What does this fold into?
Amino acid sequence: MPKYFQKLLLFVPLFTIAPLLATLLFWPALSSQIGVVTLLLSIVIAIGFSVQNHWQIYLQAECTREKMARNLALDITGLLLTMAAAIYAGGQAGHWAGVRSNLWAGLAAGFLVGFLAARVVRSLWGRVVKFV
It folds into this structure.
């Protein structure tokens, strides 16, 4: 993939998050559909970059096909576990804070707790992968 497209792909999730936040204020019924699209697009981009990274290492003859497949499977599993933990923990914290305070407190709590949950799961997954 050319470098030009890689730089553009980094901005695609940002351009989908802005409408998602705007729909929370102006058209809340549409926010869940835009949220699903944003999530799927982010997952596809992250998996694409991971595949490209492992493919480049394979082409440079630094690993075998089996090792590349193993590392790719571990990366994708870690990515999905991390995102699942962030979504669940952030959603629960955002809901709790949103019900108790307001929309902005819920958003802030969801982002913060989701980020922290992703960070913890990613570090734990890194430790697990060292032993596998």
